[in-house]
């Protein structure tokens, strides 16, 4: 089975990379982009029987730094 | 003083840090990241600058979960001294030994130059060789040195006099201009600037030497 983890900077934490992308989009003529937040997606290939709680433990211990990042887990 | 310097794959300031410790008379042991114990009698552990594990996932994240870091954390919990410089500071925040995190520089650029720092407190065995408020010149070399912590944590750091150094001219967007912080027992220091790169006349500046001299003076009988 597979899990997909989305890691994003928390709201309130400045994302300078997202801001740079927003500026670039504006400079290229794409209008109406009010904000860009950049995160990452981590795909895990897991043994059958792995649970969402297992993946959440991985997020808490390594995949995300919960001081600055939030995460969501999708199992499939 | 017996110092251990941790070496991760990708560390590149480990030998500079060892030289700075030796220059003040310390015995230095280099310790590989896969080791599962620190040498007997170590007073201070140095976590050096560099790009541990290629900065994969997040700067310092993989190193913080390496076998030796469990021992470094145990050393700190016993009241031992730990000093993290640059990538070492990132490792110490990832382990939770120091609060907060280091984000990408606000200007998105890697910055490598000597910057003015203010010694925010002289009340630690790292900073007792300076006058509080003194301005010193120390090199920085980082891409992710933008110190972040929530408002309560920043207030607590200030309230407990745990900000060790601040930038004179904030180069990276750090909150409260913070360049280095101390643990609550004042024995764990994390800082982005490199005092070991300003510890010898050949470096072009010696403002970092007082930090190592102060440590040697404090830890000689430890």
What is the strand and helix layout of this fold?
The complex is a heterodimer of chains A (76) and B (222).
Chain A: E1 2-9, H1 16-27, E2 40-45, H2 52-63, E3 69-75
Antiparallel strand pairs in A: 1-2, 1-3
Chain B: E1 2-7, H1 14-23, E2 27-32, E3 44-47, H2 61-64, H3 67-77, E4 81-85, H4 87-95, E5 101-103, E6 111-119, E7 135-142, E8 146-148, H5 151-159, E9 163-167, E10 178-182, E11 188-191, H6 209-219
Parallel strand pairs in B: 1-2, 1-3, 3-4, 4-11
Antiparallel strand pairs in B: 5-8, 6-7, 6-9, 9-10, 10-11
Subunit structure (chain B): Part of the FGAM synthase complex composed of 1 PurL, 1 PurQ and 2 PurS subunits.
GO molecular function (chain B): ATP binding; glutaminase activity; phosphoribosylformylglycinamidine synthase activity
Keywords (chain B): ATP-binding, Cytoplasm, Glutamine amidotransferase, Hydrolase, Ligase, Nucleotide-binding, Purine biosynthesis
Structure characterization notes:
The complex is a heterodimer of chains A (76) and B (222). In chain A, 32% of the residues lie in helices and 28% in strands. Chain A is elongated. The model of chain A has no long low-confidence stretch (mean pLDDT 95). By secondary structure, chain B is an alpha/beta fold. In chain B, the strands form 2 sheets. Chain B has a 9-stranded mixed beta sheet, with helices on both faces. A two-stranded antiparallel sheet of chain B has the order 5-8. The radius of gyration of chain B is 16 Å and the shape is globular. Chain B starts with a strand and ends with a helix. The model of chain B has no long low-confidence stretch (mean pLDDT 96). Chain B: It holds the Pfam family GATase_5. Chain B: It catalyses: L-glutamine + H2O = L-glutamate + NH4(+); N(2)-formyl-N(1)-(5-phospho-beta-D-ribosyl)glycinamide + L-glutamine + ATP + H2O = 2-formamido-N(1)-(5-O-phospho-beta-D-ribosyl)acetamidine + L-glutamate + ADP + phosphate + H(+). Chain B: One of its GO terms (cellular component) is cytoplasm.
